[in-house]
Automatic annotation (TrEMBL), chains A, B:
Keywords: Isomerase. PANTHER family: HYDROXYPYRUVATE ISOMERASE, XYLOSE ISOMERASE. It comes from the Bacteria. This is Sugar phosphate isomerase/epimerase. Pfam families: AP_endonuc_2. It comes from Kutzneria buriramensis. One of its GO terms (molecular function) is isomerase activity. Residues 26-266 form the Xylose isomerase-like TIM barrel domain. Transmembrane segments: none annotated.
């Protein structure tokens, strides 16, 4: 088995590539998995993308992303839920087993964190059975607490697992992302809990580097550049019996400014050095 | 009793003021407490500062800050611990009941978060009895997880309370700071735990605003400008029986650029609007 057998490249890591370029680049480099964002898939056409990826012999490891259903206002809320139903359909069409969910944050003058978190639970109750019928597992992604107000009110693995608990594991699981959760004092306990309950839906990796840039969205580090004990966390994840893909998702303008093939070669090298 | 009876101003909030100006300004405005950082106190002279503050009829609610003892290298580590012993002496000289501890982060190429956290526990074991003998309570401050690599490997109240547990409560407590902990899904549970175990040493307030600035150090919001339910958290803290000071600690260059007295007036108004 190739040492890249579990590697998957999230499309945002090499955002300068089109979906076709990403597919061709991964085939060329011997990378078996990709995790596209919805935008490039929609642009290319969902059915057409499904054929493109299947014909190339690649696997779609996850679709990024649904979520953003924390609005209290009914019309906005309904639109968000409908968009998530479409995202589930897209995942199913791509034969993709996992839809990543980023919950959304608080409104402009909103201080009701408890209310927003309650609405996340309500949204899951509507979406989970629909996803289950289509063979798609929803994967709640806790984002780093620095995104709590503007992107994701789900901040820890414990909280994501609590939210998942009312639903069957095949309908709702969680994402373990090293960038978002490496600091968590409960990381080992909660990764084990996710494994034992069959809810470890997806493992994503990026490194933590400082100083963080303004807005803190695009500061993820190339594997090995930062403070995350990547191999240790991969081993922790594997110790639960997980043997699924290792998805590299890095948002970093310095990588986007470079030649895509060069970035992929570097990611593969870093993956070998810090994860395998 | 004045509605400002519990208000204390951390010297960093109005950093443009000298210690003398801060003392005079607080007396003038009817604010009974101040929380100086060590630097302005050392600059003015510790004994002299103690007299200045006592003569003005003000209370020192905490001294900021000790800590930064995560280095593994023995000479650096010893220097850090010695500096903390001095900080305890300074707190005692100021008749200040609480020394705030910010643990420190990871070294440049360090990925050993577990080791750094173990060294925090070791440091407390040396410092706690020394502090206890001098009537100073060490207050472990969990910093927001976005500071985990560069400033503070203690990220949650649960973790701070676990670190405090081996020591008597009068020696080691914790800081509840709305800026650092507002996002924590366990905030209510852990604040109650802190209260019940007599370890709620200090309550600090600042608001959470976005976008965060580059480096994320100086982005704290004026009270009421952001997403933190300040009054709710104050009520939660009080529900444990805590009736100590409410310390306003805001790092914000926009406040530092203004007239100090004007900033103090605004802080007092915001305190009345969002906390009392």
């Amino acid at each position: 088995m190739s040492d890249l057998a579990r590697l998957s490249i999230n499309s945002e890591t090499i955002k300068q590539w089109s979906l076709e370029e990403l597919v061709a680049g991964c085939v060329e480099a011997g990378v078996p998995g990709i995790a596209p964002w919805r935008e490039p898939v929609q642009e290319y056409g969902v059915e057409r993308a499904a054929w493109l990826i299947r014909d190339a012999g690649l696997t779609v490891t996850s679709l990024c992303r649904g979520g953003f259903y924390t609005a209290a206002e009914p019309v906005q809320r309904r639109a968000a839920l409908d968009d998530n139903l479409r995202a589930i359909d897209e995942a199913a069409a791509l034969n993709c087993p996992v839809l990543v969910l980023v919950s959304g944050g608080l409104g402009a003058d909103d201080r009701d964190l408890v209310g927003a978190r309650r609405r996340v639970a309500d949204a899951l109750a509507e979406l989970a059975p629909y996803a289950g019928e289509r063979g798609v597992q929803l994967a709640i992604e806790p984002l780093h607490p620095m995104y709590c107000s503007d992107r994701c009110v789900v901040s820890t693995l414990a909280q994501a697992l609590d939210l998942a608990e009312p639903f069957p594991a095949e309908q709702v699981g969680v994402v373990v992302d090293t960038y978002h959760s490496w600091w968590d004092p409960e990381l080992d306990v909660q990764v084990r809990r996710a494994g034992e309950t069959g809810r470890l839906a997806l493992f994503q990796v990026a490194d933590w580097v400082t100083p963080l840039p303004e807005g803190v969205l695009l500061g993820r580090g190339q594997l090995g550049d930062g403070h995350v004990p990547l191999r240790e966390i991969r081993e922790l994840v594997d110790s639960t019996g997980h043997d699924g893909p290792v998805e590299v998702e890095i948002f970093n303008p310095a990588l986007w400014a470079r030649n895509g093939a060069e970035v992929l070669t570097e990611v593969i090298q870093r993956y070998r050095d810090h994860l395998v």
